[in-house]
Design a protein that fits this description.
Number of helices: 4
Largest sheet: none
Shape: elongated
Distance between the termini: 60 Å
Radius of gyration: 20 Å
Order of helices and strands: HHHH
Strand content: under 5%
Number of strands: 0
Structural class: mainly alpha
């Protein structure tokens, strides 16, 4: 890989995504703690179940972002060591793998965002039934 520093330049953006995802996880966990601190109505139980699934999505996305960061760093280090110009050398393959992990994390975050809006809409529509 000729430009070994390329994967390392992506790390600040990944860091911001990790920070944002971690913030969402913390916020969602706090919201769940408040919902589950007392005995729930059936409606609150349904909402809590949906939010727990959302928490799982965020956790998977976060893990993929961490993994992508590690793979990018490893790709950059190996690229600097080997200075190989092949398309299929180990640093290049690691760069592609990190990019795939990041893309999967983006897809998960998009799914999370749409589901979060759906849950809020469901809460709004059923708020009068409490």
């Amino acid at each position: 890989m000729h430009d070994w520093y390329l994967p390392i330049t992506i790390l600040p953006a990944l860091g911001m995504l990790i920070l944002s995802t971690t913030s969402q996880i913390t916020s969602l966990s706090t919201e769940l703690n408040q919902l589950l601190s007392n005995k729930c109505t059936d409606f609150q139980h349904i909402i809590s179940s949906k939010k727990i699934k959302q928490l799982g999505l965020l956790t998977r996305a976060s893990a993929l972002l961490y993994l992508a960061s590690g793979v990018y760093v490893l790709s950059g280090i190996l690229g600097a060591i080997f200075e190989n110009k092949s398309f299929y050398d180990i640093p290049s393959l690691l760069l592609y793998t990190g990019t795939i992990f990041m893309f999967i994390a983006f897809v998960i975050l998009i799914i999370y965002a749409f589901r979060a809006v759906g849950i809020r809409k469901f809460q709004f529509e059923n708020n009068h039934n409490l």
